[in-house]
């Protein structure tokens, strides 16, 4: 299927919005203004039937902010969710955090905690973001010990942090997740190559994960691109003994090769794994409104998989 019209319209709009800019800084500002209007404010999303509460817990590096979502009625499970952003940006107010959490609570009947882990920068490096997510996971498990299935998940870099947390829990003890929910995971460095056929199809996408972009994210997160610890980009780690895993991949995404490889790796070591390919979608499609049909289908895949 071709790139979804939602994204082709967005690409055209970005190009037109940036055109009047005389400098790179002006073009970037115009592009960001267009995107804010095109995507909309995540905090405007309907939360009817969902109680939303901001809190914070103590962590090994200081307080960890969390936003908690509880559906009305009986709780049928719980999820800890980690937004994406290349380990270096993102917050609890983005669609990939707030709207995903609302919809997992609504569609899955689950309590959801969205974790505002520390972002990598000049002073914050691996394993600090994993430490934050692991501390949040241990706390969240204590809140819902008998509520039904417990899910641990995230998107892109957040999926890597969720997977790394599951590995740490496997190796050090503690409550294991019943399901991992991984959206277009950034799980490998170097990123696996796309097939020739997929590379040709990706020509329709103007915004790509070039080699230097990926190297920049890894340097910012780990501090280097050599001797990268296995659990930093956890596709390099030992993966047996993990919980049942649900993977959502975007059809038009350079990181789709990472999602596909991770699925094969998990299957090879006996981890039950299911995947859903979101047709026509580009990377980060959960950072857009569920009014886009494939965004809604991806959320349904996770919600149904958690209940299963």
From TrEMBL:
Q: Which SUPFAM superfamilies match?
A: alpha/beta-Hydrolases
Supply the PANTHER family for this chain: AB HYDROLASE SUPERFAMILY PROTEIN C4A8.06C, ALPHA_BETA HYDROLASE FOLD-3 DOMAIN-CONTAINING PROTEIN-RELATED
The scientific name of the source species is Glycomyces niveus
What high-level taxonomic lineage is stated for the organism? Answer: Bacteria, Bacillati, Actinomycetota, Actinomycetes, Glycomycetales
Q: Give GO terms: molecular function aspect only.
A: hydrolase activity
Q: Does the keyword Hydrolase apply?
A: yes
Record-annotated Alpha/beta hydrolase fold-3 domain positions: 79-285
Q: Which InterPro entries match?
A: AB_hydrolase_3 (IPR013094), AB_hydrolase_fold (IPR029058), GDXG_lipolytic_enzyme (IPR050300)
Membrane-spanning parts: none
- One Pfam short name: Abhydrolase_3
Keywords of this protein's UniProt record, alphabetized? Hydrolase
Coiled-coil residues are: none
Task: Please report the name of this protein according to its UniProt entry.
Answer: Alpha/beta hydrolase
């Amino acid at each position: 299927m071709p790139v979804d019209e939602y994204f082709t319209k967005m690409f055209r709009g970005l190009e037109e919005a940036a055109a009047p800019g005389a400098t790179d800084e002006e073009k970037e500002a115009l592009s960001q203004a267009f995107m804010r209007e095109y995507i909309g404010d995540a905090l405007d999303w309907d939360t009817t039937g969902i109680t939303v509460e901001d809190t914070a817990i103590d962590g090994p590096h200081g307080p960890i902010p969390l936003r908690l979502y509880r559906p009305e009625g009986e709780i049928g499970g719980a999820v800890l969710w980690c937004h994406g952003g290349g380990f270096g940006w993102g917050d609890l107010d983005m669609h990939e955090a707030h709207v995903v959490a609302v919809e997992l609570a609504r569609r899955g009947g689950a309590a959801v905690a969205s974790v505002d882990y520390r972002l990598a920068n000049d002073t914050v490096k691996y394993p600090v973001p994993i430490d934050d997510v692991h501390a949040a996971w241990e706390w969240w498990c204590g809140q819902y010990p008998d509520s039904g299935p417990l899910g641990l998940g995230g998107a892109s870099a957040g999926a890597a942090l969720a997977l790394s947390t599951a590995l740490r829990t496997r190796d050090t003890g503690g409550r294991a997740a019943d399901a991992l929910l991984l959206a277009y995971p950034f799980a490998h460095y170097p990123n696996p190559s796309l097939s020739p056929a997929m590379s040709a199809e990706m020509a329709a996408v103007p915004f790509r994960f070039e080699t230097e972009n990926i190297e920049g994210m890894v340097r910012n997160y780990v501090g280097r691109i050599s001797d990268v610890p296995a659990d930093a980009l956890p596709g390099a780690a030992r993966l047996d003994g993990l919980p049942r895993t649900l993977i959502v991949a975007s059809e038009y995404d350079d990181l789709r090769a990472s999602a596909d490889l991770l699925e094969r790796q998990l299957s090879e070591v006996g981890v039950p794994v299911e995947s859903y390919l979101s047709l026509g979608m580009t990377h980060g499609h959960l950072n857009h409104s569920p009014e886009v049909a494939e965004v809604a289908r991806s959320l349904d895949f996770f919600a149904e998989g958690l209940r299963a």
